[in-house]
Write a structure and sequence with these properties.
The protein is an alpha+beta fold. The protein has a domain of 145 residues. Helix content is 35%, strand content 20%. It is built from nine helices and 14 strands. It has a three-stranded antiparallel beta sheet, covered by helices on one side. The protein has a three-stranded antiparallel beta sheet with strand order 4-5-6. A three-stranded antiparallel beta sheet has the order 8-10-13. Helix 1 runs antiparallel to helix 2, helix 5 crosses helix 9 and helix 6 packs across helix 9.
């Protein structure tokens, strides 16, 4: 692999006897440059043709212009774009991202919507077929929360508190609300050695028998993402405990084979496309409004 990067960022490359030229407007520009530097031919070729793959993957609903994905002309937030590109690479259908959008648009707080984007930038938290997302929580040996030891977090339970009792101020780190987090935060908080290499943590478990469970959270139930932990923990009013932690999730979506096949066969009327546009428009307005105030 040979390549040259011009002053304006334009890349000219020769890969596997094929010539490529692309600029910063390519939606996978950063990934392509990284693959060139790492000598990863397979990933480079797959990522280079991402525009046509997006059109095929999203069946014409999503367009790509100037490195931005749009739905009916409405720009999709960067997190959606990055996640969709990962979903293409991993072979998932795009409906889970749209279901996530549906749930997100139902969150009554504009600020909560914006803060959730900070949280979802963390790794190892896939979205589900129904548009929720999976996160981690440290609990004690009896599946009680580590703060009050009063909430049951056994598998299948659904802890819930009134939304107005959850602290919405992200500048307060330790406060009222149900908490879930990214894997590094949950492991650190519970003193759980997820790699099984710390003899003081009790093997694959944690100090005092602490353990980690997987929680399913609906975006509409998110209240705040505190800044104190580098956006690695989240306060919400409800979640479902779905399983005991076994290993970190490595894909952008968590779906069963049956769910994938069902989605492929599901009909999509024009009304569905218009509904997605309305919901995306609402989320885009929220993000634009908050970003405008942040730069004033």
């Amino acid at each position: 692999m040979k390549y040259v990067i011009a002053n304006d960022g334009t890349v000219s490359a020769s890969v596997a006897e094929n010539s490529y030229v692309f600029g910063k407007n390519h939606p996978s520009y950063d990934k392509l440059v990284a693959y060139l530097k790492n000598g990863n031919v397979e990933y480079f070729e797959a990522s280079y043709d991402v525009i046509s793959r997006i059109q095929t993957f999203c069946e014409g609903y999503v367009s790509c212009n100037n490195s931005k994905l749009t739905w009916d002309g409405i720009p999709m937030p960067e997190m959606f774009t990055d996640r969709i590109l990962d979903m293409i690479q991993e072979g998932f259908p795009f409906e889970p991202m749209l279901n996530f959008l549906d749930n997100l648009s139902q969150n009554p707080s504009d600020q909560s919507i914006v803060e959730l984007f900070d949280f979802m930038d963390n790794k190892h938290m896939p979205i589900t077929a129904d548009g929720c997302f999976l996160a981690y929580k440290a609990v004690d040996s009896n599946f009680k929360d580590l703060w009050s030891h009063s909430f049951d977090n056994s598998i299948g339970s659904t802890p819930e508190v009134p939304r107005d009792k959850v602290d919405s101020n992200r500048d307060r780190g330790c406060s009222n609300g149900l908490h879930v987090g990214a894997i590094d935060y949950a492991a650190s908080y519970g003193g759980v050695d997820i790699d099984g290499s710390d003899p003081d943590s009790g093997g694959s478990g944690g100090v005092g028998g602490n353990q980690i469970v997987i929680c399913k959270v609906n975006p509409r139930d998110v209240v705040s993402v505190p800044t104190c932990s580098r956006f690695q923990k989240l306060r919400c009013c409800k979640y479902e405990v779905v399983s005991l932690f076994q290993d970190k999730f490595e894909t952008s979506v968590h779906m069963t084979k049956n769910e994938v096949e069902y989605v492929k066969q599901e009909a999509r009327p024009d009304e569905w496309r218009r509904e997605v546009a309305v919901k995306l428009g609402r989320v885009k307005e929220v993000l634009d409004k908050v970003n405008k105030y942040a730069t004033v």
